[in-house]
Amino acid sequence: MTLLLAAVGATVAALFELTVAPYLRIGDAQPHLVLVFGIIVTIAVGLEAGLVWAFVGGLALDVLAQRPLGSTPFALLICVGGASVLGNVFSRVRPLAPIIATFVLSLVYSLMMFALMSALRSSLPVADPLSAVMPSVLYDTVLAALIGPLAISIHDHRVQVERVDW
């Protein structure tokens, strides 16, 4: 049931990213909702749910935004794999792991999408891609700081710990 919820949630997040997120712009920064929630789902629930989230959400973004098919799921799957690794590395500070992972992986995602769009379509006229994507990276990190620790705390509270009864 968790994988079905991940697929539905990714589709809803993709719809929000393409319809509502442009109105949530702050300057040049626009949130990547599918990426941020995918990282949070991966760290909170697990790699399988994160992979489903990335694949379904990426396909929904590609189809709805008329991007080259497969470019967004590719970038999201790599970022979700990185989120799983970073979630395991920062398991001692689990509520802070989505913040750290989102900062690193949002930068990776933005630069990877920039490279993929430049390779698959005409070259994008940007002199410094790093300075062009940094506002969105910071926006994504703030969203992860607001939502990530709460989502992980709720998930960890709901999971039943198996204990041995003596």
Describe this structure in words.
The chain has 166 residues and is mostly helical. The chain has one domain (2-157): Arp2/3 complex 21 kDa subunit ARPC3 (Orthogonal Bundle), CATH 1.10.1760. The protein has helices at 2-19, 33-44, 47-65, 71-89, 97-120, 129-158. Helix 1 runs antiparallel to helix 2 (33-44), helix 2 (33-44) packs across helix 5 and helix 2 packs parallel to helix 6. The longest helix has 30 residues, at 129-158. It is globular and about 65 Å long. It starts with a helix and ends in an 8-residue tail after the last helix. 37% of the residues are buried. The model has no long low-confidence stretch (mean pLDDT 90).
CATH topology value: Arp2/3 complex 21 kDa subunit ARPC3
Topology pattern, helix = H, strand = E: HHHHHH
SS elements, strand count: 0
Number of helices: 6
CATH C-level label: Mainly Alpha
- The overall average pLDDT, rounded, is 90
Low-confidence stretches: none
Euclidean distance between termini CA atoms:
32 Å
Shape: globular
The amount of beta strand, in percent, is under 5%
Structural class: mainly alpha
Radius of gyration: 16 Å
Number of domains: 1
CATH architecture: Orthogonal Bundle
Overall helicity: over 70%
| Main β-sheet description | none
